[in-house]
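Notebook entry, structure prediction.
Reason for the run: the old model in the group folder had no record of what sequence produced it. Starting over properly, with the input documented here first.
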Amino acid sequence: MNYLQANLCLLCVTFCWSTEVVIFACIPDAVSPFAVTSITFLVGGALLFLAFGRRIATGLRADRKKQLLRCLWISVINAGYNTLYQFGLADFDVSTGAFTLSLTVVTMPFILLLMRSRVGWRTWLSSGIVLAGILFAMVGVMSRAQLPGLSIIAIGCVMRAYYIIKLNQYAREHDPVVLSALICVSGGVVSYFFWMAVQPNTFMGIPWSPVVIATLAIYSFFVVALAITLNVFAQRRATPANATIIYSTEIVFSVILGAVLPSSLIDPVHLTPFLVVGVVCVVVGNLIEILDPGKMRNKGEEAVT
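New structure, fully documented this time:
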């Protein structure tokens, strides 16, 4: 997989993630977010083990304990920032919420500096332009009452930046399929304990119906198994900063989905001049980071997969 292919994979992953707003709309409010995460991650992991069982078994023969501990660690971080997101996003609509989640782009360069990693000028420029887009999108829709929710999301974004950095490191050292399967299983187990704490009757507390079952099945395959595996493969070639900035295109996909899909599926997004400018800033920020001549010179070189 070369540099451009990795970026295309990250865009596909981001599109899969953006469909969450539609999928979540089909799940009753009585179903805990922890239940959704636990069930879909465990099912996604089971799908990967069924499809690649022999490869996973082979990959676990070397450094099994190390891989398991690493996946458990980043799964705890993943569950942590997703939990913060779920509480923080309650105060925002679809489009504004998507913009606030992109604060990870702003925190990433500083986290990299703290970890003594080099940050190029393109990354700083891209992050600045994306930040400008976030601020534009919040004009006229942000209120003082939403500041607590924004603070919670900001903490989650710092955790997510660290998660992306560690995932990028682990993806280069382990088999992507093995790593994806372990992340799914360990993430499902960690989320199950959160779920059990808030809803002790767990599976018995879910209002099972054909719609709920179908929704969880779609989420398990496209958003969990497929997206996580593509993401880990792409992380072997991309940098943490590169990946984070491409993740911000989730804003673009979310706004488009909110503008074109019927209100019966998703809360409609009303396109305002500030929102459009915000989306344009995100696109420009991505192009600056992706179209790096130094990296594109090597587009013909194959990375180890």
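Summary: The chain has 14 helices and no strands.
The old model has been moved to the deprecated folder.
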